[in-house]
Amino acid sequence: MPSFIRSIRATFVAAATFVAVIAGSGVASVDARSLDEIIKSGTIRIGVLPNSPPQSALGETNEIEGFDVDVGKKIADTLGVKPDFVMTEIAQRVPFLVSDRIDISLGGLTRTPERAKLIAYTVPLHTESMAVLTTDKVQAKSWKELNDEKYTLVLIRGVWTVDFLKENLPKAKILLVDTMADVTRSIAQGRADALVENIDFYMAFTKNYPDVKWRVIPEVINTHYDGIGVAQNNDALVRYLNIVLYDLHTGGFVEDTWEKWFKAPMTVKIVPNPYF
Q1: pLDDT tens digits for range 39-50
Q2: Residue 29 pLDDT grade (very low, low, confident, very high; cuts 50, 70, 90)
Q3: Which stretches make up the Solute-binding protein family 3/N-terminal domain (predicted)?
């Protein structure tokens, strides 16, 4: 997602290609550092995206910051070690785990069957939900009502959602822009009427236009669950992280940190389950 830059088709193609090559060739993973080895080293290597605000990005002081960074620091704190944030582009998240260049991967790692052939996942850290972000000028109550030539939908150029909308809302016009900031700006300025996407990642940008009466249609089109990526067979680390995540969810840390960075509650919240 965002990083929605992460939705860019070329990135997904690169990631899918890597998965296909590794899975098809039977290449074995490099042995990952165990939970004990991580603790003894005094450092946990955490993969984060370098340009995916508010999930993670370089801030004004050129330090990495964002939701994933706060979560990573919290995990390191529970282990009694220091976090070592490693910049991983979208297509590098799985390869870096397989080759033991990182211990865990954050960065909106959606659970998919293809990835699960190569890496392990924790229980969900957060969700990504497709819904509609619009304003009070649009009276539609369902995303299907946007299938009308009077509406213009805005998307970042190259995201897979373009094809989704062409198939499901063929009558609507589509405006393509380059960034998440451009998306919200075009709606605020009236050049577009709505966004149909994983809207959690765009909510922070609506704060730039306080006079606009933003509205989210309370209908979730689909939801994906993002866990923390871990190397295959690193079972002790997965078990440990599942316990940590349960505590972070039930204690309110995840929800509070999400709202701190995304400026709105998670569209579909995680329901903590102690049985994992």
Answers
A1: 999 999 999 999
A2: low
A3: 43-265
Give the C-alpha separation, 214 to 248, whole Å: 30
**Gap between the Cα atoms of 208 and 84, Å rounded:** 32
Rg of the chain taking only CA atoms, in angstroms: 19
Residue holding tokens 């939705």? 7
For residues 63-87, average pLDDT = 97
- Contact between 54 and 133 under an 8 Å Cβ cutoff? The reply is no
**Tokens standing for residue 101:** 């260049």
Contact call for residues 168 and 199 (beta carbons, < 8 A): no
Nearest to 158 by CA among 208, 193, 191, 197: 197
3-state secondary structure string across 242-275? HHHHHHHHHCCHHHHHHHHHHCCCCCCCCCCCCC
pLDDT, tens only, 54-73: 999 999 899 999 999 999 99
**The dihedral formed by the CA atoms of 193, 3, 110 and 168, expressed in degrees to the nearest 10:** 20
* Structural element, H or E, at residue 195: strand 195-198
Query: What is the C-alpha to C-alpha distance for residues 220 and 32, in angstroms, rounded to an integer?
Result: 38
Share of the chain above pLDDT 90, in %: 82
Mean pLDDT along residues 103-126: 94
What DSSP element (H or E) covers 226?
strand 214-231
